[in-house]
Amino acid sequence: MIPLWAQIAGAAAAIASITSSSTQTTRMLRSRTAAGISPSTWILLTISSVAWFGYGVSVRSPQQIIANGSWVVLIVPLTWFMLHDRPRRVKLLAEVGIAFALIVVIALGTVNENIPGWIGIPASLLVSAPQIRYSLRHGRGPGISPTAWAFLATSSYLWFAYGIGAREVPVIANSGIAALLGTAVVIALLVRPQPQHLASSAP
C-alpha cells in the first residue's frame, strides 16, 4: 500500500504537471507559435508523454494518468504548431500517429506494466538536453513558457518522492534525473532572454 505522504506527493505532482502543460498550451495559443521549443525536445516530449500515460494506465495510478494525460493533450496543439509549414494532411497524419502510438503503449502495458515506463525513461531523460542547447544558442522564443518548465521541474521532484513511497523503480529513476535537468532548462531560459526581434513581433 502506498503511504499517505507519497499519495499527497503524487497528487501535488499531478497538479504541477497539469499547471505546466496548461501554461505552455496557453502560451502557444496566445502567441500562435511554438518558436523557442526545440524540435528534438518536441519529439522526445511526445514519446515521453505517451509512454508515461501508458504506464499510469498499466499500474492504475490516477495521479499519473491525470498528470501525463494533460501532457498528451498538450502534444496535440504542439504538434500542429511545430508542423506549421507542412501540408494539413501531414499534420493530421502526425496526430493519428500519436493516437496509434498511445494504443500500442497501453497494449504493451498489459503484457508487462513496466514496459511503458522503460520506454518513457530514455525520452524523459533526454528531453531537456536539446532544449537547453537550443535555448542557449537561440534565446527564449515567444512560444515557450519558462513558468511551464518551472512547474514541470517541480512536478519531477514531487514524482521522485512519490516513486520512493510507491516503490516504483521506473518513476524513481526517471524523475530524479528529470528534476535536475528540468531545473537546468529553467536556468537556460532565464539566462538567455527572448531575442529582441522576436519580442517586438510577438503579440
TrEMBL record:
The keyword Transmembrane applies. The chain crosses the membrane at residues 34-53, 65-83, 92-111, 148-165, 171-191. The keyword Transmembrane applies. Keywords: Membrane, Transmembrane, Transmembrane helix. This is Unannotated protein. It comes from freshwater metagenome. The lineage of its organism: unclassified sequences, metagenomes, ecological metagenomes.
